[in-house]
């Protein structure tokens, strides 16, 4: 890790922080975060139901895709 | 299963930050970040009453899931895996987390939270954003926590 970084490193860090703030706002949109929450809870319940039947739920592959 | 109200508040606050962290600071593609953040949140939902530090826990799990997803994609892991030696840092952080787990549990609550997030490889700026404080406060907490952990680990070894 570089100590006392260059101007380019500072610019990159500021750029990452700006991108982070923009993305947090994007994913915090009520319809987006609400939809993600419902899908997460539905998938958790599906896995719980599989376990209750003695099965082994797959963590990935069976899960819905999250784009959007 | 989770206490839905508390979990929902946590989800609405943290899911956007976890997905954003994976994209902006770790360089993952948005679809991988979204899937990894969601997968971590599913696993947290299943363990809501037993996870002691959910903010640190969910970030650690999301990062590991994202790595697992990325290695199976044609474009692979983000460039940092090769460019700046991060795998070694991740391994070192994981080993330190294992070694320091007992000592970290004995820290005051704020220092413990900051240290657990640092062990999950979050920067002071990310920790500050997660905890609603400033990077300077986080650096101060980390300095106190490191001193305390050195003392605790030293006294346990001796």
From TrEMBL, chain B:
Domain RNA polymerase sigma factor 70 region 4 type intervals: 102-149
Record keywords: DNA-binding, Sigma factor, Transcription, Transcription regulation
Pfam families: Sigma70_r4_2 (PF08281)
Keyword DNA-binding (UniProt): yes
InterPro entries, per database record: RNA_pol_sigma-70-like (IPR039425), RNA_pol_sigma-70_dom (IPR014284), RNA_pol_sigma70_r4_t2 (IPR013249), RNA_pol_sigma_r2 (IPR013325), RNA_pol_sigma_r3/r4-like (IPR013324), WH-like_DNA-bd_sf (IPR036388)
Keyword check for Ligase: no
Family: Belongs to the sigma-70 factor family. ECF subfamily.
Protein name in UniProt: Sigma-70 family RNA polymerase sigma factor
């Amino acid at each position: 890790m570089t100590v006392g970084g260059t101007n380019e490193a500072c610019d990159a860090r500021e750029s990452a922080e700006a991108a982070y703030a923009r993305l947090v706002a994007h994913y915090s949109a009520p319809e987006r975060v609400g939809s993600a929450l419902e899908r997460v809870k539905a998938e958790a319940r599906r896995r719980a139901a599989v376990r209750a039947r003695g099965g082994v739920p797959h963590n990935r592959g069976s899960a819905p895709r999250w784009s959007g | 299963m989770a206490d839905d109200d508390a979990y929902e508040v946590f989800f609405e606050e943290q899911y956007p930050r976890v997905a954003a962290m994976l994209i902006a600071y770790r360089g993952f593609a948005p679809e991988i970040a979204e899937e990894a953040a969601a997968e971590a949140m599913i696993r947290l939902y299943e363990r809501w009453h037993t996870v002691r530090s959910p903010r640190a826990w969910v970030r650690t799990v999301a990062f590991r899931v994202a790595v697992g997803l990325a290695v199976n994609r044609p474009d692979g892991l983000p460039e940092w895996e090769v460019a700046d030696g991060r795998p070694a840092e991740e391994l070192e952080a994981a080993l330190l987390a294992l070694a320091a787990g007992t000592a970290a549990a004995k820290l005051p609550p704020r220092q413990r939270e900051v240290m657990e997030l640092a062990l999950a490889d979050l920067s002071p700026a990310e920790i500050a954003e997660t905890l609603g404080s400033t990077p300077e406060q986080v650096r101060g907490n980390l300095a106190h926590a490191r001193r305390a952990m050195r003392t605790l680990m030293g006294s346990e070894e001796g």
